[in-house]
Description:
Blueprint: E1 8-11, H1 20-34, H2 41-60, H3 66-81, H4 87-100, H5 111-118, E2 123-128, H6 132-141, E3 150-153, H7 154-157, H8 164-174, E4 181-185, H9 188-197, E5 201-205, E6 217-219
Parallel strand pairs: 1-2, 1-4, 2-3, 4-5, 5-6
Amino acid sequence: MFDHKVTDVFFDLDHTLWDFERNSALTFAKILESNRVKVDLNGFLEIYSPINFEMWKLYRENGITQSELRYQRLRRTFDILKASVTDEIIDALSHEYIEHLPSFVHLLPNTVEVLEYLFPKYRLHIITNGFEEVQERKLKGSNIHHYFDQIINSEMAGVKKPDPYIFELALSRAKVEPRHTLMVGDNLEADILGAKAMGMQVVHFNSNNEANHDVCKTIYDLIEIKSIL
């Protein structure tokens, strides 16, 4: 399966291990109600999710700032819904979203089973584009923090995947050569192409229904990792 022996496995966090969509929906259900924003939750999420995906792509490419990301994804959603929501409320929602999101701890199917399987055999690490405090709370709240040796985030790196430096930092901290690593992530551009460019071996966990490709092996359930490692 792999050209070189794997000693270290690097995972993305959101959409790969931590069930971002489910936890995000629960967060919005809580904060929209507490701020008395009268919109249909399912209708809101249907508009918000693709906008958030697009905004994160811009953020990865340094096209927008963190504060613009947090504001614009909500403003654009409410504008499309023709919901009258003030900037003051949007600021409150933005703050409360980051505050409450890590308190929901649902993981994607088979996450713990796969980590339990890998943990005795490989060193496990995280490379995430999320913000340090939020990602730490997600890992600890969902009780998977202890599986990981190195946890590298874009805030400490000063750059975001697929920038080479975040992978360089992760490899340096883990003290491992790229050819002896495997990167598992959901985003083809940020996780897979970014890691592959560094000489890491890669597996694409296609949890977002991205288009088919021949860049590397694709899996659709984390449990498939047990058959390749």
